[in-house]
Write a structure and sequence with these properties.
single chain, alpha+beta, three-stranded antiparallel β-sheet, two-stranded antiparallel sheet, 7 helices
């Protein structure tokens, strides 16, 4: 993705990609500015939300005609099944309501639910892990995107969902900043899709 995106998005430049003795090495250029998760922007939530909304619109403007990677629901379910089948879906930062008395009994049960409840997709270019640490801002302009390992063609609500989750973590799930995000985007929230993609991300 980092080889395909230059000229389409502000992303780091690859200097060297090298594999040796089973290890992969990647040397990239440094982005200018601060990540949107920096203390500076966390203390300015309205401005941070503005840039998060702007970043989504920049991503959606990328022409996906010849995008080399498709990371839609079909592919995500395939990867999630591999992780569940091989015991790789365990992690310590699950959302508290995902499992337990009022949630799913296991990652396998969650996977079955995700398979049975796949939403219709609105395909765009997706970052794949759209959250403030992966967006850089410099001189009041988005200066770049990092951590593009899950990027590709996917539903636009994939990135919206993880952005909403991040806002909830940083400023509270019932904060007005989630409402502000959708005002900035000029659209209404689709909570069924948002919840679906947050749950899907629990398996990664």
């Amino acid at each position: 993705m980092l080889q395909w995106l230059p000229g389409k998005l502000p992303v780091p430049c690859i200097y060297i990609a090298h594999k040796e003795n089973g290890n992969n090495y990647l040397l990239m250029s440094k982005l200018k500015g601060q990540m949107a998760y920096s203390e500076y922007w966390l203390q300015r939530p309205k401005q941070q939300i503005h840039f998060m909304a702007e970043g989504l619109q920049i991503l959606w403007a990328v022409n996906i005609t010849d995008c080399p990677y498709r990371n839609d629901i079909k592919n995500k379910i395939r990867l999630a099944k591999y992780r569940v089948d091989n015991g790789l879906s365990g992690r310590e930062d699950w959302e508290p309501e995902t499992y337990g008395e009022n949630g799913f009994k296991s990652p396998g049960e969650l996977l079955d639910w995700l398979i049975d409840n796949q939403p219709e997709e609105e395909l765009v270019f997706s970052h794949g892990d759209y959250c403030p640490p992966n967006i850089f801002i410099d001189n009041n302009t988005i200066s770049g995107f990092i951590d593009l390992g899950r990027a590709g063609i996917a539903d636009k609500w994939q990135d919206i969902a993880l952005c909403v989750r991040s806002i909830g973590h940083n400023f509270g799930k019932n904060s007005n900043y989630i409402t502000l995000l959708f005002e900035e985007l000029g659209m209404e929230p689709n909570w069924e899709k948002i919840n679906y993609y947050i749950l899907l991300d629990e398996l990664f």
